[in-house]
Design goal:
2 domains, 6 strands
Length: 273
Amino acid sequence: MKRSVGKKNQNAAPGPDAADGGMRKRGGSTRRWLSAAVMVAVVFVLAGLVGEVVRNHKTTQLTPPSAAGGPSSYAVPVSGKPPVTLTVYEDMRDPASAAFAQTYAAALAQLTAAGAVNIYYREVAGVDAAKGGTGSLNAGNALGCAQDAGHFTAYRKVLLAHQPDEQTDTFADKAALTKLAKKVKGLDTDVFRSCVDSGAHNVWVKDSSKDFDAAKLGAVPVLTMKMVYQDDTSATTLVGGTTRTTPEQLVTEVLAAAKNAPTASPSSSPSGN
C-alpha cells in the first residue's frame, strides 16, 4: 500500500505552485529575449544615425582629392616643383575647354618635359550655372575621384574625348561617368564608383567655382602664369578673355620666365603654395 501510494504521488499532476514556477521561468526567458531584441534594435538605429551623419558630413565639407595643391587645395598639380606655375581653369561640360585642351596639349607637354612648369588644373562648374544641370559638377567630382586613384590625367583625356553637347547634360548621369572609367586601366573600382556616387568632392568643385568667379577672370578656359614664390594675385593671364597667346608664344614666354626665375624666393614676396 505504501508503495502504491508513493507511485500515485509520483504520477500526480504538479500543483499550482509548480505551474506558477514554470510560468515564471518562461516569463523570465521571454522578458530576457525581448530585452535583447530591443537592445539589438537600438544598436541598429544608432548605427543608422551615425551613418547618416557621416554621409551628410561628406557632402557638406570640403574634401580635396589626394595630392591636391595650390591655394586652398583647389587644384590638381601635374608635374613637379619647377620655377613657373601654370593654372588651367576648365569645365568638362564646356566645348571651349575641350578645344583648349586639344590646341595647347602639345605645348603644355613640351613645357612639362622641359621641367619648366608645374601645371595646376582647376575644375569649375560654369556651364551648370549658365544652363542648369549638374554635369560640370559631377564630372569635376569624378576627376577628383580619379586623382585619388592616381589616374587624373588619363581620365581627364577620356572625359574630354567623350564630352557631350553642352545642351545634353550627359555627365549629370553618374553611371555615364563610371562607365567611361572602364577606358582607364585600374580606375573602375568599387572605391571610385562610391566616390562618384556620393559626390565626395562636390564641395571642392563648388568652392573652386566660387573662387574662380570672385577672381573675375571671365569664362573658361583660362590659363594663367606666375612664379612659384608669387601669390595668385600676381598671376598673368596668357589665355582667357581677350588674351589669346598661341601655343608657340606660350612655349617661348614660359621658357623665358623659367630661365630668368630667381634661384630663391625673394623675402618680400609672399608664397602662393
